[in-house]
Hints:
Chain A is an all-alpha fold. Helix content of chain A is 51%, strand content 0%.
Amino acid sequence: MPDLSPPPRPEQTFFADPALDRLMGVTMALAAEVYVLRSRLLALESRMPGAASESLVPDEDAAAFVRRLCEPLLGEQQARGPL
Amino acid sequence: MRPDADSAAHQRFVAAARAYWRGPLFRELYREAQAAPDTAATLTTHRYFAWLERHLQRMKYSGPRGLSAIAQRQRDDLLAQVAGPLPPHLLALDASLAAPDYWTDHDIHQQPGGLRDELGAFVYREAVGGGVVGTRGLHERFAARVVRDRRVKRVLDLGCGFGRSTVAFAQAADQAHVDGIDLSESCVTLAAHESPEALRGRLAFRQADAAASGMPAGAYDLVTSTMLLHEMPESAVRALIAETARVLRPGGIVAHLDFLPPADPVLRLLFEGHARRNNEPFLLEHSRIDLAQAYADAGFARVDVVAFDEEDGALAQPPRAWRLPWHMIVAEKHA
């Protein structure tokens, strides 16, 4: 049977070199995987003997994770140096 | 929907990334762009802003932990939620309804299958639960403003989706009967099944096209829509205006809540980019219509267009976060 499904449409690009668009996709996919693994790990650790009684708030933990991940996108020096 | 733990974590990551995108990253872009608004599109920060807008939406809907896949894994349970009996007046489906091409050619909002899929309404409801268009209380705020100081007994809600706007109008106009229509079988079905018991006697949902509704002529005091016009091409919006004039009684009101381009050049750049990035191919078309002329031609006495603050402080300058440029478009038919 011939495949009659419509061909996929090429993804939009936003950088001068489309290689960057695709690499951003890989980076964000990896970041999402790391966050999923982090969530699993935190869930396991919370069940261990002696675990802290105060658990993380998931939404706050996600926001802090994303801040650490995305901060370089702002392009700001963290310690004052030459421009 | 009840996602598994990994999918819930994935969605939490995407939601947090979207909050970063529309907050800190937007504010940095807006600050940088003030120096040269005309070339803001070439800023590196703009490129990242654009990429994240496009692809965080993709990550929300698509892939094994996207909302579409989550819904598919719960298919039987979700469909069981809308399989029970309803009062006969509450839901009318039309299997013969010919869906317009503009509705079938694109997956609006990057939702795979759009609202044409039988699970589409469940996915959409989950997607707007929080985020740019999911501001809590938006529908209630709009409905309260529209019906304030007006006696409204019969309302038609065009493109009612899964019924949030329809219910909001039934609550705001506490004696009114409200009909909600939408092209999507999934949406009107979910709307009917999830409508509050206490309001069901004053609600009805029907699968129909807002541009040719088939509803009775001159029957409504108020015709409304929320986030509908920008999803239709210009020809369909013009047909909708004519249809609105047909179903309204003399002196009746039409009130749309939708998006119009901002005057601020940087916000306008981002709004116009949003059209393509969010799969909204008609977002800019209705803003090209001379609304005053179009409504005058259709028999309306006046049309008012005012910015709408979806939450307190939303219109603050400089903007605190990227937001869609909500506007109320209100017209009154000749008495």
